[in-house]
Amino acid sequence: MLFEELGLEEGLLRAVAQEGYTTPTPIQAQAIPVILKGGDLLAAAQTGTGKTAAFTLPLLHKLSQRRAEGGKTLSKKPLALVLTPTRELAAQVAESVRTYGGHIGLKTTVIFGGVSINPQIDILRNGVDILVATPGRLLDHVGQRTIDLSAVEVLILDEADRMLDMGFIHDIKRVIAQLPKQRQNLMFSATFSDDIRKLATGFLHNPTTIDIAPRNSAVETIEQRIVFVDKARKSELLAYLISSSNWQQTLVFARTKHGANRLVEKLNKWNITAAALHGNKSQNARTKALADFKTGGVRVLVATDIAARGLDIEQLPHVVNFELPNVPEDYVHRIGRTGRAGESGEAISLVSSDEHDDLKAIRRLLKKELPGFIVEGFELGSKSLNPEPEEAPRPPMQPRGRHGGQGQRHGQRSAPAAGQGQPRAQRDGQTAAARGPRPERAEPGPSINVNRGGEPGNSHRRGGGDNRPRGAADGNRAGGPPPNRGGGAGRPNSSPRGPR
Ligand code: AMP
After folding, report:
1. Predicted confidence (pLDDT) per residue in 329-342, tens digit
2. Are strands 372-375 and 448-451 parallel, antiparallel or unpaired?
């Protein structure tokens, strides 16, 4: 199917072409006709499927047609309202609406908390067609009578499941109470839980239901790997993977705000530029962290689930779960940050012994046996390179020599789909080895050993080409990377061999 077949007006087709989209994604192909007809919609679409354009394009089309027929636009009463759970998602959706509506001339405004309300009041006073908002700040405006929602014709709830998770149900109901009864309702959710269905029956009228991805199945283009590692060595391993593979853009998920801060401090000490994104940061700090990460100013963004929900970072190559989420569904949301809109991506989860129940729950949810690995030099129970890693961390080191060998591919990740892998590696300048063991390439990089059965404790190397006992071959302590004796922190991290 082509975008031209959807009946969208020319200005929108031009914007879509300028974005480089050639064909509508499945959610777009199915949702756009329903929305254009004016019906309510309940859509389960995973993040990264193109759902923002799926509701934005027909919305812009309808409002533009309305204006062409003499309907009023740019009044003080918005015609469409998009509610999102997080400020970042609100900003992102507004940005998309502006991009897709670049040739249409409707006005989009975004309002969210954490920043001064006064500039928002000024902007609203000038009139707005499409309002994108988080529920709390929107209700502040309602309370101050600086917004009038009585003309809203289309209501869109984006990431509705997350809104429920975040306890926005009452706020949503209070917002809905402000809207005219006669309106079109569109609800997007990553999953269809019972709570979502209940919410949907409360305010959708005879909705068309679209279920794009099988429930809770992770995006197929994402290569998922589990790496078993001792808890105390996770930061070291993360730094090692980033440095040795020269990853330039990695989104890392931590469970707690405090843990995210601590990890950022460590990475920065090791000369890997990193920033934290979580709810304790001021909105300005959050905006800056995200902008720096998007533009390459920082290589690593360490985020908590809530702050990172819905983020769309173009062609994000690597997502790392520093800790597994304790809600298995969050795993799907997290890894959905990569592999967006059919792109390939890589998601690595660092799993310590206390997280096996979480891993089991994720495997159960995905109905998938995620492959488990051990990174050479980071075997369970092996010693840290740093005598006191918490107090005096040193840069992680590259194991000398490569232990990847013939047959190591066996049991590891399946061959990438066509077009996968190579472009991503080129984009990052990373070594092929970084994307997993490639026995036929003797490049430096982490050598990841197969863990048979996907459970820790029975890991073994599969016929590595170099069968020397680790440690004996290169003089490493505990078979791992040699201790850093040269104060390698000053070394640039751009070397595929990592800091020395
Ligand atoms: P979303 O699921 O809305 O967050 O979109 C994920 C990504 O897909 C965004 O970066 C969009 O720019 C991109 N995208 C949306 N629609 C298309 C399309 N038809 N073809 C290619 N990329 C798209």
Report:
1. 888 878 877 765 55
2. antiparallel
**Ligand 1, from 18, 49, 314: best to mutate by most atoms within 8 Å of Cβ?**
49
- Which of 222, 312, 337 maximizes ligand 1 atoms within 8 Å of its Cβ, making it the mutation to test the pocket? 312
Tell me: pLDDT of 58 over 90.
yes
CATH architecture assignment, domain 222-383+444-478: 3-Layer(aba) Sandwich (3.40)
Residue type, 57: L
| Range 3-211 has CATH code 3.50.50.60 | no
Phi and psi, residue 221, nearest 5°? -80, -5
Bridge partners for 211 per DSSP: 44
Provide the mean pLDDT of the chain. Answer: 77
| 356 Cβ contact list (under 8 Å, min separation 6) | 455, 456
Q: Cβ < 6 Å from ligand 1: which residues?
A: 21, 24-25, 28, 47-53, 312, 314, 340-341
**Would the CATH topology of 3-211 be identical to that of 222-383+444-478?**
yes
pLDDT tens column, 415-454: 223 333 332 333 333 333 333 332 222 233 344 443 333 4
| Whole-angstrom distance, CA of residue 82 vs CA of residue 463 | 55
Q: How far apart are CA 290 and CA 277, in angstroms?
A: 7
Let me know: does 499 contact 398? Beta carbons within 8 Å.
no
Say if pTM beats, i.e. exceeds, 0.90. no
- Domain segments of the chain: what residues? 3-211, 222-383+444-478
Q: Tokens 């975008």 label which residue?
A: 3
Task: Look at residue 184 and give its three-state secondary structure.
Answer: strand
Nearest in space to 396 (alpha carbons), one of 302, 489, 318, 298: 489
pLDDT of residue 29: 95
Q: Indicate the pLDDT class of residue 273, thresholds 50, 70 and 90.
A: very high
**Chain CA centroid to CA 134, Å:** 19
Nearest to 120 by CA among 98, 138, 94: 138
- Over residues 296-314, the pLDDT tens digits come to 999 999 998 877 776 767 6
Residues 104, 273: Cα–Cα separation, whole Å: 40
Beta strands in 11-107 (DSSP E): 41-44, 80-83
Q: Which two tokens stand for residue 74?
A: 């740019």
- Cα(404) to ligand 1 centroid in Å equals 37
Measured in whole angstroms, the distance separating CA 367 from the mean position of its chain's CA atoms is 21
